[in-house]
Amino acid sequence: MDERLAARLAAEFGLRLVSSAPVDLGADPAARTWRATTADGHAYAVKLTGGGTPAGAAVAALLARRGVPGVPAPLTTRDGRLDAVHDGRRLTVVPWVSDEPAPGGDLRAAHWRGYGALLAAVHAVPVGGELAGLPREDHTHAAVGAAVRDTDRRLRAVDEATADRWTREVAAHWLAAGADLDRLLVAVDRLGAELRARPAELVVCHGDPHLGNLLLGPDGQVWLIDWDDAVLAPRERDLMFVLGGGPAFAPRGRVDEASFRAGYGPVAPDPLRLAYHLGVRALDDMWSWSVEAADPGRREADRVRALRILAGLRSPAGLLTLAGSALRAAGR
User: Fold this and answer.
1) Main-chain dihedrals φ then ψ at residue 250, nearest 5 degrees
2) Could you tell me how far CA 67 lies from the centroid of its own chain?
3) Residue 249's domain spans which residues?
4) Predicted model pTM
5) Phi, psi of 7, rounded to the nearest 5 degrees
6) Is 165 exposed, middle or buried (CB count within 10 Å of its CB: 0-12, 13-18, 19+)?
7) Which of 63, 97, 131 corresponds to the end of one domain?
8) What is the pLDDT of residue 250?
9) Of 72, 97, 122, the domain-final residue
């Protein structure tokens, strides 16, 4: 963390840091996170991001005030705001609650139950007041569709003679997946139109509750972090990460659906909505990681990581494959 950012934390949040270290707590290319420690021994997660919306911190604060377990409450600035601005990006601070991210942790049945119970508690919060102003799922995915088409144009135009190695590899991945991406985009366009004509109950959703955003504690304690994509949506928007076979990022691919359901409670998710959200997420991941891997301004390590993720998305157990299977199973 540079001196300017440390000074901003002191000025805005009153935090005098004695140490800080960058951490990798998620898959958000628009964000950077540090573990920061103050002189009194308290530790905080400091996040600087240009992604999501400012509503995320407000949702986390409200849920924490309402006693929803496992939602760390963000700190406020000296004048009561939930974030500050640094270099044009949002700066937020939350207590450091755990050193154990779920994907690499000792994820037990009790944690899966806690994960389900936490999402159930979030989905049960009444939608009113501040929460009524959250972005709403409209099943149009217009931004994702436009980004996929733009990425397709860019990568099909890559010049093999002048492009660097990583850009050539990205273009090869994209072209190999081209037919699947075309079919998927057509399918979610049609399914989105169908779902727009079938209104569903909207609940408060985290929007991105895969295990990369879950931290573990003792005795089944879990915390859900990174609320930047909070949205009012059908509960399938969140449930697809487990019940839809989506990108839960479970260790060695193990998803304990039975324990998750025991924690969440009785639920019969709509397979069409699960398939829709899986499809949109697959398209979103494919274009965003492709753009990162093809960006010569990125660090080589970041580009290589993005290429690994792209290969995983296209694997037999990857999200692109799962989304196609879910849509076919739903007759779409």
Assistant:
1) -70, 145
2) 23
3) 98-332
4) 0.88
5) -65, -35
6) exposed
7) 97
8) 60
9) 97
Side by side, the strands of the sheet bearing 84-86 are 17-23, 31-38, 43-49, 89-95, 84-86
User: In the numeric block, which tokens belong to residue 223?
Assistant: 């915390």
Amino acid at 142: A
What contacts 157, CB < 8 A, 6 or more positions away?
Answer: none
**3-state secondary structure at position 289:** helix
Q: What is the CATH number of the domain that holds 254?
A: 3.90.1200.10
Each residue of 113-122: pLDDT tens digit?
999 999 999 9
Domain count, the chain: 2
And the tokens for 74?
């963000």
* CA 78 – CA 60 distance, rounded (Å): 19
pLDDT tens column, 163-222: 999 999 999 999 999 999 999 999 999 999 999 999 899 999 999 998 889 999 998 999
Q: Could you give the CA distance from residue 175 to residue 168 in angstroms, rounded to a whole number?
A: 11
